[in-house]
Structure formats: C-alpha cells, structure tokens
Amino acid sequence: MAHEYDAELVAQGIKTLLEVEMEDALDAVEAVWVTNGDAVTLPDVVTWHFGFKPTVLEMDSDAFPFVSVFDTGANPTEKRADWGFQEEQFPVMIDYFVVGTTEENCAKVCSRYAQAIRAILQAERVIEGYHQVNWKPQVAISEMIRHGVTTESDLLVSAAAAVNYIQGGRVSVLMEGG
Which of 24, 109, 164, 177 has a 20 to 30 Å separation from 66 between CA atoms? Predict the structure, then answer.
C-alpha cells in the first residue's frame, strides 16, 4: 500500500540528509570565506530536533547551533490526476538558530548556515522519492536579539559575559511527487 501522507517521511529524510552532510558543508563554506578574506568559524550543530520548537529561545546558549526540520502539510498539485494517483507538494521548513558573542559574528554565522544548508539541498534533488521544486530554496533570516547565556541570565542586569546574541533563519523546501 502506498503512503497516503508522506510529508513527515520527506521531512525526516531531509533531517537525516542534513545530519549526515552538515559538518562537511559548514567546512566548505568556511573555506570559501577564508579565501574571500573574511574567516569566521562555523560551529557544528549541537542540537537537532524534529518538529517546531516554540521554546527554542529559552534554551541555554550551549544548546546552539540548533537545527529543526518539520513538515507543514500537503497540497495536491493542480495537474490532472487519475483516481488513485495524484502528485502533491510538501512544504518542509528547516529552522536554525545560532548564537554569537558579537552582533557581527552572529549575523555572519547565521547567513553562512543558510549557505551550507542550501548547498546540501542542491546536491540532492530527490529525497525519499520526492523532488525539490526549486533549486534555490527560499531563505528568510530573522532579526537578531540579545540572549541570555543561561536561563538565569537577566538581560538587564547581567554582566556582559552572561549575555550574547541569537539569530535564526528558515530555509523553506518545496518537495513534489506522489
């Protein structure tokens, strides 16, 4: 029996792909920027998560970088479908958050994480039997905010060493097949 709802399967496949390839992709992006004269160390992912995590900003800084992958549903394509067969599109979101001791470092790490994630996706058009619709998945980067190094940090009164910066990004991957 064919799968009736493959969105989670596809999202899990993307998460696995990222887990396997991320360290090498981050190293490759670092190398590009060393050549460009703007070296920044890109830390490996500390926390992997499946699903949306609404409490991510409450986590201690040592839990970052954080990467989460989740499906957001399924949409039938508008192509003619025969009864019993119809292609679908699955939007899959890759949310990631990084921390840095300075605003500039945090911003660069956040942007370069998007570069690494895109490179991984571009190397694998088909995942779990579904293909990516866009060669360049959409990237959205959030505004940066101050973040307590631990949950006990008070952003108003803590010493500078107890406060850093956090920024997130979202890579939206549209998968299609059926």
Answer: 177
pTM of the model: 0.90
The pairing of beta strand 66-71 with beta strand 138-141: unpaired
**pLDDT on residue 159:** 54
* C-alpha span between 159 and 78 (Å, rounded): 57
Return the pLDDT at 178: 78
Low-confidence ranges of the chain (pLDDT < 50): 1
Residue 26: both structure tokens together? 């981050």
pLDDT score at 114: 98
Q: Are 169 and 56 spatial neighbours (Cβ–Cβ below 8 Å)?
A: no
One-letter amino acid for residue 132 of the chain: Q
pLDDT value of position 2: 54
DSSP the chain: ---S--HHHHHHHHHHHHHHHHHHHHHHHHHHHHHTT-----PPP-EEEES--TTGGGS-GGG-SEEEEEE---EE-SS---TT---EEEEEEEEEEEEESSHHHHHHHHHHHHHHHHHHHHT-SEETTEEES-SS-EEEEPPPEEEESSTT--TTTS-GGGEEEEEEEEEEEEEEE-
